[in-house]
Amino acid sequence: MKKMSSFERNYWEDDSKVKKWASGKGKARLAWIKWAGRYWVDLRILRREEDGYTHTKQGIRLSPEQVREMLPVLNELLQDIDDKVEEDERHDDKDISS
Description:
Blueprint: E1 7-15, E2 26-35, E3 38-49, E4 52-62, H1 64-97
Antiparallel strand pairs: 1-2, 2-3, 3-4
């Protein structure tokens, strides 16, 4: 994988679920990087190439402070999604049993 900064440590990778990058064409990657003299949390799509995966412009960099501020909001968002999925499943079950 090509380096995009003087420091880079991958923490998580998974195959992209977005159609454009599915079937191994791309991976979502979360990393700690040093870029422009600062440390960042980098969430990015990696594109498959012949010699592995390389960085794309499709991603974001957040400061550690931004991520800390975002954590409770992410938990709330995930809870809201779980609640909606559960509500939809109950609604679907109700339609089937009617």
